[in-house]
Amino acid sequence: MNLADLRENYQRGQLDRADLAPDPILQFERWFVTASLGGRWRRIGIACYKLWQAIIGRPPTDVNAMVLATADQDGNPSTRNVLLKGVDARGFIFFTNYDSRKGRELAENPAAALTFYWSELERQVCVAGTVSKLPVGESEAYFKSRPRDSQLGAWASDQSAAVPDRTALEQKWRELAAKFPGDIPLPPNWGGYVLKPERVDGGWELGDHFPSPRPLPWESENGSTVS
Q1: Contacts for 45 with CB less than 8 Å, ≥ 6 apart
Q2: pLDDT surpassing 80 at residue 38
C-alpha cells in the first residue's frame, strides 16, 4: 500500500456558520449526540459501504488518519487530525502548511506526538519524538502527485487563519487557478515533516472486565525507547 496515494474527498460534513450554536460546548454536545446515535439507516449505510470497500479491496476510509499533538514554547498544547503519508527508517511523514498553528508550534518546539486508532482492530499506537522538515525536493515530489484542486487549495488556504466567508476563499481559489493555468509550483510555506520516534506504545482495548494490557516492549534499531 502506498500511503501517499491514499486520499479522501471530504465533502459530507460541510459547515454553515448560521447552523452553529453560539456556545461551543453546546455545539459539541449536538455533534456528539449525532455521532453516537445517528440513525438506523445511516448506520446500516455506513456498514454496507465498509463491506463494499472490503469486497473491492480498498483500504478502510482514513486508515492513515492520526492525531498530531504539538505544543508552543510555553508548553500550551494543541491537537488535530492529519494524514500519514509515509513511514520509513526516518520515521512518520506528513505534509501541511508551515504557517499553520502546528507549523508555528513545531518551529518553536519540535517535540510532538502521534496517536493512531483503528476501531475495527480495537488497537491504538502512540508515537512520541522529534519533528524536522523534509528536504524541499521531497516535498515538491509529493506536491506534484496531488490532484490539481488540492494543489490550488494549498495556495489558497491560510491554515489556522480566519477568513471572511466561503465566497472570499472561493474567489482566491479562482484567481490562483487563472494565475497557474499549467503546472502549479510548490508554495514556499508548504511541505513535509518527519517525526523521528523516540517512544512507541502499542496497546489494545479489552473491555471493562479485563485489566488494561501493559505496553508491548521491543527495541528499535536506532536505540530509541520503544515499548
Answers
A1: none
A2: no
